[in-house]
Amino acid sequence: MDSASELLRAWAEHGSEEAFAELVARKARVLKAEGSLAGWLHRHTCYTAAAALRRERRRHAREQTAVTMHALEHDSGPDWPSLAPLLDDAVNALGEKDRRAVLLRFYEQRDLHAVGTMLGVSDDAAQKRVAHALEKLRVWLGRRGVMSSTAALAGLLGAQSVNAAPAGTGLAVTTAALAAAAAGAGTGTLTLV
Q: Do 55 and 4 share a domain, yes or no?
């Protein structure tokens, strides 16, 4: 038996005295510093159980996102409410320049010329920045078990970003902000109806 966890499991499940003796022999220095075998066993058992729960939660989350992205790759359509928070986390994980390029291109639905103008770069540089950001999103999602292509991500972001806020919200916010600015109420509150 190799690890302390395996030895502990053999002792707990089968009452293996050999496993227990080897465990105590391996952990003698730690046990001396800990002060008692019971203290070490309790701490190690809690640590092992917590690690197992974390692995299970991560596995479950990866499976859920993989199912959602699999639906994206096929015609059945993704479960947008489940996928949106994951994509939000991915976009937030981008660096400032990449995040701004994605937000301008997909959330604000701007063409590459407008993205380039707002970023202060050429159209070609804007296109490269957006492509680079999409690749980073794809890699970020892939590390979490979500396999997709950059084209699928671009399609999803382009199609769903329009639905990210209720219709008319952008117009209401803009109108209220302009009215408040015109009235000189720069320090007042903004109320959306």
A: yes
Q: Is the pLDDT of residue 186 over 90?
A: no
3-state DSSP of 122-156: CHHHHHHHHHHHHHHHHHHHHCCCCCCCHHHHHHH
What is the pTM (predicted TM-score) of this model? 0.46
Q: What is the pLDDT of residues 55-75, one digit of tens each?
A: 998 888 878 777 766 665 564
- Note whether residue 74 is domain-resident: no
Cβ neighbors of 145 (< 8 A, separation 6 or more) are: 61, 62, 63, 65, 66
Instruction: Look up the domain containing 41 and give its range.
Output: 1-62
Residues 119, 111: Cα–Cα separation, whole Å? 12
- Least Cα distance to 137 among 96, 99, 83, 165 occurs for 99
CB 132 within 8 A of CB 98: yes
